[in-house]
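Reposting from the mailing list since nobody answered there.

I have sequence plus structure tokens for a pair of proteins and want to know whether others read the tokens the same way I do. The first protein:
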Amino acid sequence: MAQSHGADVILGVGGGSSMDSAKAIAVEATHEGTSWDYLWNSDTQPTPKTLPTIAVSTTSGTGSQVTQVAVVTNTRNRDKSAIYNSNVYPKAAIVDPELMVTVPEHITASTGFDTFCHAFESLLNPSASPYTDMMAEKAIRLVQKYLPTAVKNGLDMEARTAMAWADTLAGLCIANAGVTLPHGIGMAIPGMYPHIMHGEALALNYPAFTRFTYPYAIKQFALLGRLFDSNLEDQGDETAAEKACEELDSFLKEIGMWFGLADFNIPENELDDLAKQSLVLPDNDANPRVATLEEATQLLQECFRR
């Protein structure tokens, strides 16, 4: 349609799927083949011929309005991957919290937890910098304070505005640093089971991920623990880091995101295949503790029931 219309610009209005679709269309309309030929690990990459996109976010979660990422799913192959190239950055972004007040409670929670994950995982990523750390800490503070309110009362403009800002900050974090193991798993799950939202997939694996990783990132997990519970300021780093896992569990329960793989009817006999798919993207290699296939399988087994 974009080609036949002779489109000059692609407008993406919505959540991450809408904005990422706009970016993929902008590539496919101006290049040979399909958007699948231009994934992050392809020999061919989007060129400056890519049509400009304008991103208008209506959820607070993906940060796609400020990233060079376009996530794409191939349901036939049960695969979810991404275009990752500077030529797909939106040329302009409009972030208006008034567009978010009608987002349902569960989608608010799911996208909001994605915001948290972007911020926290950028702290863990080896490409982190003082610039991304500053934005990540601010985003985590905002999510911890305002996401429960936004979930309970979507009309609260203070909470919606804070979450929109947190989402944008966290998007800038992953555009300049990156994510880690939970996003590898969080891409594989909805790739194989498209009825599961990205934020849900992250919530599914985070309790196991935090306990797997925190001993290898004491500083970052201690910071997280203290951001969620100021009483941990008086505790040592190792104690605060360990407590961060419990604090995050409580937060997931508070926003209604506490569930296991079995709750989404994922077949237990497919966990081995899911583990293999979880390690395809480079996110695992950026984790403070790099998971083996056996460890990834064990993580998913721990995620199966809550």
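The second protein, same order (residues first, tokens after):
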Amino acid sequence: MKNIPDVKIGIVVGSTDWLPSEIAVENRKKLTCSYTESYGDANIYECSVCLTDNEINIKRALKELSQAECTAAVVYWANYGPESAGTLFASEFDGPVMFIAAAEEGGEPYIVERKDALSGFINACYALSLRQTKVYIPPRPVGTYSECARMINDFFPIARVLAGIAGLKLISIGPRPSSYLASSAPDHLLYDIGVEISEFSELELLDAYKKHEGDQRISKTVSEMTAELGENDIFPALAQYEVTLNDFIRNHKGNRKYVTLTSTCWPAFPVNFGFVPCYVNSRLTAKGYPVACEVDNYGAVSEYLCQCVGNSSVTILNINNNIPSDVYEKKIKGKEFGGRSYEAGDLFLGYHCGVTSSERLTSSKAEYHFVNRQLIGEDHSKGTVQGSIVPGPVTLFRLQGTRDGKLRAYVLQGQILPAEMDTYGGRGIIAVPQMERFIRNIVIGKHFPNHCAVVFGHYGQQLSAVLRQLGVNEIYYNHPKDIPYEGEICYDTDPDRY
């Protein structure tokens, strides 16, 4: 996957002065061996420097990891360890850091072999708060060698997202549609988490598009589109637009390593460009440059976070409508999907005009934009890719800035069902337990828009960990049936109970 960080993790240990450093070094070697046996050794590095109480080895460790091109670090409390040196190292390391600790292993008597890592780990975490240093701490951070190896492996997607957002440029093109207030949100909160934003007029994009007429790369792009969807007379114009956007990314990336985009796509776009941009946006997303519709800045950043955590292409969908009762009765009721059945209130149609890439569709075809075709006719409404989204597990995610200047987010795990709905656009029937209540109490109650980013697979724990690292404290998820939301009144079919 392009446009995301390559993560290499350095494993660092330390030893307090009143314990032999050989104990920590030996335990580090055992952890590294356990990791390589399970996951290989391509993306980890064992730092030879052992941190000590007098802190003189911090610079040596930092230099060694830099020379080894490590972009993330794990500080492993192999024994009691030096809490001050460990936290100073974390504060000075230029990249994501995780703290974990060794569990006691082996049999009695625990005289020489006892590690006491938990005790030092607790004090180190306290020292982190004193130094206002954030590191990732897993839910169960004390483990055996094999358990700690799994924690390191689980840290990769989290580190990838944190490194990605630290180097991210959001390219935002055009004004938000005047009748789409859902994209309105305070952008300064994105600066607060490290995102750089560059805003451009759609006139600048139109000017760049016109200057690419006759570009030699257009024919190759047309061939790619034809191989993907079959011949279509709109492809030369779409290919010219794709070449334009690729150059726009390169020319406006600045000093940032990674890019996500969002652009205006109606109402003036199709009239002036002569097509809708959905299919091109889907192709860029498939290549690692996620594009959100309707100048949705937070949607674009949400997509990028999802791309990093899943290390694969993503999409953005509307939480669009309920599933009609006749569709539910015929195709879903009483059946099991992934080992569970769903009620009508668990379901909704995830939809967008055509920005889901063809690789994520069971079948795909180039189409007219259904709504634009009715409003402005066929001549300007070609350019979407439509079909049913491939069924399987998904995580729905949204990061949002609020009117009162706060960052909020939700994380939902569910699945796209293998039950198609005969309608237009890129769409899928999505099942999330108790989704109807979640929409009322969180999406509406906490002021989220209808767009949500979709990553294919379950990454709820990793995304929640990333949000906490970014300082997002309001993280919402779907509650089970018997756990009410704050302020929720749970009515049932017996009115006499209330």
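Reply #1 (J.P.):
I read it the same way you do. The mean pLDDT is 92.
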